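Researcher: Let's run the pair from yesterday's discussion. Sequence first, then tokens, for each.
Model: Starting with the first of the pair.
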Amino acid sequence: MTDFALTADERIDQLYANDIKIIQSPSVFSFSLDAVLLAHFAAPPLKSQAKIVDLCAGNGAVGLFLTAKTKAQIIEIELQERLAQMAQRSVYLNQLEDQVAVLNIDLNDTFKYLNKDTYDVVTCNPPYFSDLPKSKKNPNQYLAIARHEITVTLEETLQVTSGLLKTRGKTYFVHRPERLFEITELMKKHRLAPKKIQLVYPKAGREANMVLIEAIKDGRTGGVRFLPPITVYDENDEYLPFIKEVLYGKKD
């Protein structure tokens, strides 16, 4: 199958920095800057023998963006059928079917399809918000599932992550800063040692609204490095140079 025809409300967006095209739709959850920054933050092995899994893949953005950094095989796991189909068509659109595969499965069923302790890297842009009884959720089910832990919890996601990784394998997460301590405690509970943390600020003088985290399976505790922060916009709401480079590539 090589059909990537668009349906009614779909469009093709592009990450110009690595010439990857992504099928998107306003009706479902689209990738945004967090996915771009996660792919930039991740440091996968270059070799083709390496194996990567991207959890909560959505429309496939993170896994597709990673192809610019590695020849490794990449498996994307996404629960929602329409998003998984969009991801698969984006794989065909970019002619990456020899490198990237999409599994339309529940994350909690991962080990029915993939072997434990065999992957070098796991990336994840998970739902950011706990599924609390009084949580206000988007009426659009695609968006609600993408943003809230309706179908999978943070701990379940980290448990699967740890199960997939080889000893000394690495995971890369993007999340909300207000859950940073919860995330690091759950990582340690599931044999993942946080090693690098980078905060992302929308503008100077504002609170951070994203955090990027690298952890190593069965790594030594301690030695966490806080990388220089990222600021997205200047005072005129224009992208700062680093963000422009991540989105559009270096200018000649």
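Model: Moving on to the second of the pair.
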Amino acid sequence: MFNGLVAYLDSIKARDPAPRSRWEILLYPGLLAVGMHRIAHWLFEAQLFFLARFVNHLSRFLTAIDIHPGATIGEHLFIDHGFGVVIGETAEIGDNVSIYQGVTLGGTDPANGVGGKRHPTLANDVIVGSGAQILGPVTVNARARVGANAVVTKDVPEGAVMVGIPARSTLLDATEYAREFVPYGTPCSETFDPATQKIELLQCQLDQMQKQLKALLDEREIAEEQAPRRKGSRTGA
């Protein structure tokens, strides 16, 4: 158990440049919320629903993080800052997932009236930026990044970088710019916005067309300048 805790603390330290030691991480609200959720989930699985809810409410009071006792969480979940994070009952979270403040893994009403799977599934190594909303029984596949304030309502491909409302995949795969870990899910640059990228591509195409047009006009100018000379040379002959 001790070795597992140390490994968990080290995994957080690897993703957060702020703490100077493991002792600081022990005070993180996200760590307390995940620890209390383990207890609440065990009670929930034992069908001690009232006690599970009691632990859940106590955790929410202490950390401002609301994780339903029924949610399934893998190893080394890192909830950074954590204030306002909501994780629904049927949510499933893989290993080494990072979630920032204000994130909602929310549910949707099933059309057939059956409870079932209503919340998202996050695969291993997913990063969800602050304020992002992932809604319904969608799957965010491994190594995907969800940018801040994005709203995801459809499945996210492996390694994709999602931004915007509704969330759209950028033109770059996460593996092209992120070898290990990128805080907050996406680089803080406008060039990673899909709309901006499309405008830049159009701008490049326009620049190429302008260069081609200039080359054609230059050739025409040269041809027009040479035409009178040729005509004069024939007259003189």
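Researcher: Give me one sentence on the second I can quote.
Model: Helices lie at 2-15, 22-25, 29-45, 49-63, 174-177, 194-236.
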